[in-house]
Amino acid sequence: MPTAPLPPGPQGHFITGNLVAFSEDPLGFLTRCAREYGDVVRLGKTNYLLAHPELIEKVLVNGEGHFVKIAAHEARKRSQGGFPEAMMNSEGEDWLRKRRFVQPAFHRKYVNACGQKVISLTEHLLDSWRPGQPRDVYVDMSELSLDIVSRFLFNTPVNDEARHVAAAVDAIMRLTGSPFRFPMWLPTPTNVRLRRSLARLDTVLAGIVRRYRERPGEPQDMLGILLSAEQPLSEEQLRDELATMIMSGHETTADALAWTYYLLSRHPDTQARLVAELDEVLDGRPPSPEDIPRLRYTEAVVKESLRLYSPAWITSREALRDCELGGFHVPAGTTLGVSQWVTHRDPRYYEEPEAFRPERWLSETIKQLPKYAWFPFGGGPRLCIGASLAMLELVLITACVARRFRLELAPGCEVTSRPALALQPVGVRILPHPRPVRGGVSSSRQERA
Ligand code: HEM
Predict the structure, then answer these.
(1) Which has more pLDDT, 76 or 249?
(2) Is 205 exposed, middle or buried (0-12, 13-18, 19+ CB in 10 A)?
């Protein structure tokens, strides 16, 4: 018999529970639940939301082994078109073996070595921005981050094939973002699109692997590591690992960058302070990876953007056995949701939580923040494997953009968020205005020459 009570939560509809309220406005619904019912909210018979950083830490760090990321029913769902062989979709011993196998590709020296590429690809993109001509920065950043991640993973640009990869990612995100899913064998329009996209993705990835095999590259990049496995990986394993790495590595980064430029365009004062730092540190030249430790305000801008619009807006674990959290009973089989969106905007941890204030990351008080009050990359053993690469990209790309352009939101554009697998910004159109660059060095063409 449980000794602790069940947590409070909204009653919802007698048949559909809280499903409709959640799918209509997931961000608003979860926030209201946490503010109204507290740190543990019962959203349904088998669904809880945890809002307190200590509870989030307990579940993600999982010291007692009570929780799993991929429960059996979730694994079944993923096997329907969701890359089931990938490390990120694995659990237990199988996950640990795969994670140890791919981890060396994310060693700091390879991440740092990628920095110069990040800068030259960004400068190349910025060369195509015309004064005052609106840019869909989400599209720009998607293409850029896709190019970066594919060079990082297998040392190949996928520019020509990027459309196919991006289409597959989009189709999968639409399918998995929907609370209603039909079995894969049903020819619904989404399933048909998904199957086509997956087939195209297979062809593109097979081409990349073939070319890579013909031209053996650095064994330390992801593909080199995967191909050097003692027990050769099956085609499916190879595809699933590459596809999920590309997906998780490019979509989230593109979202974070587009949200950052949206926020900067709405805060001219922040832009001015950012440029002051760039002028001081860079003195007119483009950034280099060695500048990162001195770009403290730039990093604060990125962290604040990740606080307000964390691309990972929710994740979950499942309780394997009965346990207690925050004084409430958790039956085995309960899904425990933790939401960056909810906790990152909690007024107990952030003064004026809705305000964009990068300065807060430079203040002394931020050191008092509970560890899991900011967790855009998750935490515990399943911490994002690409977190260092992502931070390096976000800081360097933001420095490149802000050094060359003042960003203004295009008149009349209405920006909304689409909480799918990641939190996508919709409708961010930016007018770039070239800045007079200190020292007269303004074009990357000169720098690359
Ligand atoms: C701003 C960019 C990014 C954000 C916000 C982000 C966020 C996250 C989060 C929150 C998790 C953990 C999910 C959970 O615990 O349920 C995760 C896992 C993961 N991320 Fe990222 N990520 C980013 C960039 C990247 C990059 C650049 C890569 C690779 C190139 C990557 C690859 C992965 C992988 C493979 C996992 C699964 C790790 C595991 O299950 O052990 N991510 N990411």
Answers:
(1) 249
(2) buried
Alpha helices by DSSP H, 267-311: 268-282, 296-308
| 3 falls within a domain | no
Q: Is the pLDDT of residue 447 over 60?
A: no
Amino acid identity for residue 249 in this structure: G
Q: Which atom of ligand 1 is nearest to 394's Cα?
A: 1
Say if ligand 1 is within 6 A of residue 18 CB: no
SS3 6: coil
Q: CB–CB of 157/151 below 8 Å?
A: yes
More confident: 161 or 392: 392
Q: Is the CB of 312 under 6 A from ligand 1?
A: yes
For residue 443, pLDDT over 60 is answered with no
Neighbours of 286 (CB within 10 A): 22
Q: How far apart are CA 146 and CA 253, in angstroms?
A: 9
Please check whether residue 8 lies inside any domain of the structure. no
Q: Which has more confidence, 171 or 60?
A: 60
Assess if residue 335 is contained within a domain: yes
Ligand 1 near 67 CB (within 6 A) = no
Closest residue (by CA) to atom 15 of ligand 1? Answer: 378
Residue, of 403 and 202, whose pLDDT is higher: 403
| In a domain? residue 10 | no
- Per mean pLDDT, which range of 38-47, 91-100, 162-171 is the poorest? 162-171
How many angstroms is it from 383 CA to the middle of ligand 1? 7
Helix (H) or strand (E) holding 135: strand 135-136
CB 286 less than 6 A from any atom of ligand 1:
no
How many angstroms is it from 252 CA to the middle of ligand 1?
8
88 lines ligand 1 (CB under 6 A): yes
The minimum-distance atom of ligand 1 relative to the CA of 145 is 27
Gyration radius of the chain's alpha carbons: 22
Claim: this prediction has a pTM higher than 0.85: yes
252-304 confidence digits (pLDDT tens): 999 999 999 999 999 999 999 999 999 999 999 999 999 999 999 999 999 99
What CATH number should be reported for the domain holding residue 226? 1.10.630.10
Residue 329: domain span? 19-448
Take atom 40 of ligand 1 and give the residue whose Cα is closest.
88
User: Which element (helix H / strand E) includes 425?
Assistant: strand 423-426
Distance between CA atoms of residues 182 and 175, nearest Å: 9
* Whole-number Å distance between alpha carbons of 414 and 429: 9
What is the number of structural domains in the chain? 1
Which one has a higher pLDDT value, 211 or 398?
398
